[in-house]
Amino acid sequence: MAPYASDENTTAGEVDEQRSRRSKAARYVVPVTVMGVAAATIGLVPALADSGDPDLPKITAQQLIEKIAKSDVQQLSGTVKISTDLGLPDLGGLESSLMSGAASPGEGGSSADPTSKLTELASGTHTLRVAVDGPEKQKLSLLENAAEYSVVHNGKDLWGYDSKSNEVYHGTASDSPKHEKEQPPATPKDFAEEALKAVDDTTSVTVDGTAQVAGRDAYKLLIKPKQSGSTVGAVTVAVDAKTGTPLKFTLTPASGGAAVVDAGFTKVSFDRPAASTFDFTPPKGAKVTEEKDSDKGGARKHAERAPKSLKSPKSPEDLGKGFGGAEGMKTIGEGWNAIATFDTGGEGVPSGEAGGDLGGFVNSLGDKVTGKFGSGTVFSTRLVNALMTDDGKVYVGMVTKDALVKAADAGK
């Protein structure tokens, strides 16, 4: 079916209030930062599409956005498949070490702590089982080879269980606002709201036909940058025609090729899950760690370097959100071409004899660039690029390498 014609090319006036305010970013090593920012995009997920092209009544982009906003689905369950292809360099296993190490538990911590475990969604393909029964009951299970990791929120209790290590993490929702924020959004509506927060007058929003997702008819909402220079090609959200619930999310890069993030329901039901779904009792012999006893100097210190949440940045200007609070955070440009910049207060990537083997290795992960600003190294993924100058300034955004160099030149 051909895309529906629509004069709704932008929704800036309708969603302007959703744009987030700029926040500060912490100092961090650029290669790990690029991975971390990319991990934050996982928060945009809802679904994987089936074949099919249902014949549905025409709808405008604004009407579809309103349909999402009015959706009030409180119960659902299903299976979600998430594939992430950030195009990170092959580090021979170091990538996994960096990602897990950035949030690994220290002495007194727990491998079942959601803060560390869910960073695994930053790369590769994963299968999740999800269940929701209102704001007080949610369960998410990450299925692994011969193992399973689950997060269960039931009333005041928050449980994490890692079957591989037979460890349990227990916190209370009333005392753990940090953990509530760190968990993936509780409903598909949350996912759609996060995606729409990136919409402003630099964005084109249209209805791009229909699709079938997990056996349900859906409209496709197409979100594209109007500006050139962004690494984002398009974002497509498949929206359930009946309930207004987002069922699919796909982010494709401007460079073409496979999606950076392709995630969605392979099965979905809007019936109330069984109450027993949200019951949890620590298995016999499991090591149980209470939140109040966890290592704040170890796991928490590392967690502060990781994204504060798995949700996407609320806007391109908010790329720094989730990395703490470094001083001097600024934003250059607007919309999808926004670039976050700050000064680390020290030297950039070590090179030559001064950097030794580490400097040579880190530099091998990026591309050396020069300009009026001097010289530096660009670290790239298929979505986020970061430039660290030799004098310690950092420029990061969902923009091309040339855009970063131009921004650094303008900053001199």
**So what's the oligomer here?**
single chain
**Can you summarize the main beta sheet?**
12 strands, mixed
Give the DSSP E fraction (strand runs of 2 or more residues): 25-35%
Low-confidence stretches: 1-51, 91-104, 175-187, 296-326, 352-356
What does this structure look like?
This protein has 412 residues and is α+β, with helices and mostly antiparallel strands. It has a domain at 316-410: TATA-Binding Protein. 19% of the residues lie in helices and 31% in strands. It has a 12-stranded mixed beta sheet, covered by helices on one side. The longest helix is centred in the last third of the chain and has 13 residues, at 352-364. The radius of gyration is 21 Å and the shape is globular.
Short précis:
By secondary structure, this protein is of the alpha+beta class. The chain has helices at 12-15, 30-40, 61-70, 94-101, 114-117, 177-182, 188-196, 299-303, 352-364, 401-410; strands spanning 75-84, 124-133, 137-144, 147-154, 157-162, 167-172, 203-213, 216-225, 232-240, 246-253, 261-269, 287-290, 330-332, 339-343, 367-371, 374-380, 385-389, 393-397. The radius of gyration is 21 Å and the shape is globular.
Sequence-ordered SSE layout with sheet pairings:
Layout: H1 12-15, H2 30-40, H3 61-70, E1 75-84, H4 94-101, H5 114-117, E2 124-133, E3 137-144, E4 147-154, E5 157-162, E6 167-172, H6 177-182, H7 188-196, E7 203-213, E8 216-225, E9 232-240, E10 246-253, E11 261-269, E12 287-290, H8 299-303, E13 330-332, E14 339-343, H9 352-364, E15 367-371, E16 374-380, E17 385-389, E18 393-397, H10 401-410
Parallel strand pairs: 6-12
Antiparallel strand pairs: 1-2, 1-11, 2-3, 3-4, 4-5, 5-6, 7-8, 8-9, 9-10, 10-11, 13-14, 14-18, 15-16, 16-17, 17-18
